[in-house]
Each structure stands twice: as structure tokens, then as C-alpha cells.
């Protein structure tokens, strides 16, 4: 595997991009070419792992050699197994009650549960104790598990640091540290906690850092706490998954729910996430959908952790087929059966769009995403298109008017808000009826590649 040195020319607004020619891993067709044990190969076969993903083919051999790895990879590419397999392959039998040999830091509670589950699946017949620690759950139960022995600890930085302070996690025998979704952990303010943990880890350790982007904060963390890491880049050329069909609907705000129902009827998806911008909106949509459909769930940050765990467990088991969510599940949740993503509210950040849409099309599967866009949100859609370097396809549902013509919107506004809006509504209707050749042209604010509100008719 080739190595690459971290560049020193980044500013705080840049993202570090690896040189693909220097870091592109050799794609291996089979797991038995990666130097894995017979027992691990048997486990992989039993759980249906047929061929390694590019991330797994690249990271596993380097990690098995003991070198540090800085890998740039999106979620949904098989990266959890890429670090879990080498850890399990090099695990030593130290007996009951021994301190952890590996620790995995993750940004969210949901991801801690998911990564722990993947470790447990990959253990097979091996007796490896994996313990998840995160906030929102009673700490006494976690302490009890840790006292019985934990070979691998998976947790959020804050709760891990809490256990270290209580002396219920001992880092003195640690061999491997994994920073999973490193950019996300730094984005949400975990840097001080991560650095406190890393400073208490043994100097002679292996560090594996996986991140969707290698922005300057991630680069600085790697420079300070990693030893000559092997750099591997598995990021696509654009920030989207090519196999995901991406569409948008132009819709009036008060027609969104009706559009959602009509879209669900038309698509009949096997499993869907409907993303809302706010917790309150999430609750409202969940309540209304539950009156019309079965298998509807809801998840957001205000739910108790027990409820969130229960919802995600039912969603993974496909007992819940329609999940209404805020961006709490926009990253790090790997449920491979999701066929559709519906952005009921356009996300506040273009990067959030990428992570939402990335919930479908997992591990190379096909998926489809729909985004509801009001006329006022045309520029936000243009920014998304520029980020992913792809123009979304406008969709319509036959026989359903998602966005009223201007004169009908004017009448609806008067009915809803009163006669005070009559003058403004009439002006809008008149403007819409102005012939295109006589209307004053508007400049395209984002250049030729992006569409403007004027060109879209939004």
C-alpha cells in the first residue's frame, strides 16, 4: 500500500484531498487474499460477507500489519468491518476481568450500538467481550459490564471520559484506538474529550482514524496523535452516490403532507426514512402518518434513549418500515434495507443532504431520494446540486397539484391569512402571467451549472 504525507498548505476552510494515484488501494476480489484466519473466514461466510468492499480490501491488510491508518471514506462503504476484523484477528486471550485491548470512539449513541452489534456478529465462535458505553443510559449497568471484563469498548467520548474518571475503564493495556466518523465528532464539539482520552492512551499503540472528510481539524488531530499514518482515500469524485436516483418536487408548504401520502402510495417503498427539520415537525408528521399507515416510527433527540434504542431495533428488524426522523440519524446508521429517502424539509446544510441521502444505496445497493422544495428554497437546492455536481430530476405525480398556479395560491393565501395579503397576492399572480419574452431576465447567481429560482419557476 502506498503512503502519503499530510499536506501543510491547508487553511481552516479547506478540505484535505488525498492524491488518488498515490493512495488508491489494490481491489482484492476475495477475503481469503487478505491474510485472515480460517475462523474469521468461516465467520464471514456464515454472516454472508462474500467479497470485501474497497474500504475493507484497503484497510484490513494495513491494519493487520500494525500501522496507523488515516482513511477517508463515507458511511455505507463497509468501514466498520474494516477496523473490526483486524482488531478481532489480533485479539489476545487475557482472561476474565482484563482491561480493554481496543477502544472505538464514535459521535452518537446510535452509532455506538450499531458498531457494537457489528463486532458481536464478527466475533463468531470467539469469546470476545464487547461493551457499549454512552449517555442516556444508567451508568451503573455499564459499570457492571465493564467490571466483568471488556476486550473492546465502543462509546461516545463524553461517556468514555466519565468512565475513565471513575476508574471503570483502564487504558494501560490498550493496543488499538479507533476514531470513527472523526469529522463528525469534531463538528459536534468532542475534540477536548477526544484529546483527553488520547493523552491517557499508551504511546505504543495503533491508531485508526476514519473520516468522511479530512478537513484541517481532522488533519491536526492526526498530526498530533498518529505515527506516520498510511493514507487511504475511498471517497468518490463527487459528494453523492451515483447509484442513488435523486429527484425533487416543487411543492407549496401546505401541500407537503398530501404530497407525502401520494408519493408513498405511488412508490410503495419497502423501507423509508422521512427527514424533517425540527423535532416538533417530526412529531406532527409521525402522528398524522400513524393514523393512515402501519409500521410508522419516529426518532429525534428529545426521545429518551430507551425509546430511541427500541425504535432503531424495530427499524433494523423491518418491523418499522417508515421512520420519521430529524438529522439525529442523518449519519452513522447503517440499515441496508432502506429503499427510499424523503426530505420532507430541505436540509439546512448541503452536507446534511449528502448524509441523509446516503442512508439509502448502502453497500452499492440501488436507492432513490426525493426532496420537497418550496418556491422560496430554490437557491438551497442549487447549492446542493453544486456540491454533488449533479442536477436533480424534477418529478410530478399525475393528477396531483403539489404547487398551485400563482392565481390559486393568491386565493388560498387570502382565505388563510385574510384580505390584508390581497394586494401582494395579486401582484404575484400578475407577475406569473407576464409573458417570458417581456419579463426582465434575472442573472443566474450560481453560474451556469446551478439553476436559479427564476429558471426553475420556483
UniProtKB/TrEMBL annotation:
Residue numbers spanned by region Disordered: 1-23, 424-458
Organism from which the protein derives: Botrimarina mediterranea
Domain Helicase ATP-binding: 60-232
Protein name: DEAD-box ATP-dependent RNA helicase CshA
Annotated Helicase C-terminal domain residues: 243-411
Residues of the DEAD-box RNA helicase Q domain: 29-57
Entry-linked PANTHER family: ATP-DEPENDENT RNA HELICASE DBPA (PTHR47959:SF1), ATP-DEPENDENT RNA HELICASE RHLE-RELATED (PTHR47959)
Family the entry assigns: Belongs to the DEAD box helicase family.
Keyword Nucleotide-binding tagged: yes
Low complexity: bias regions: 432-441
GO cellular component: cytosol
Ranges annotated as biased composition (Basic residues): 448-458
Residue ranges annotated as motif Q motif: 29-57
Keyword Transmembrane: no
EC number(s) on file: 3.6.4.13
